[in-house]
């Protein structure tokens, strides 16, 4: 039961982050819905938070979340991280965040391909 409650809390946090960030980006409502429908539903709330912690902090990512990230796709990853990095409080370090985003993608795709070709 505690694990279920924790998962619900994580989902709530991700939904709250999306709701908090999307209006600030001046994207129209259909684009925000499209991002939700096509991107955020492809990744677990836990991995979404891990990815944010890697790009905007100093965390590390596990293999499972790397796999989820690759499954989400580069366009979704790039777009969502750029939207967050465009926040006024973060824009001063946007170049750093975009580099970390790209480094994370490179790391995860290499790991994904390594696992794929070792099968």
UniProtKB/TrEMBL annotation:
Signal peptide positions on this chain: 1-20
Superkingdom as given in the UniProt entry: Eukaryota
Keyword terms, alphabetized: Signal
InterPro entries referenced in this protein's UniProt entry, alphabetically: Prolamin-like
Annotated ranges, domain Prolamin-like: 38-108
Name of this chain's protein: Uncharacterized protein LOC109131233
Lineage, uppermost ranks: Eukaryota, Viridiplantae, Streptophyta, Embryophyta, Tracheophyta
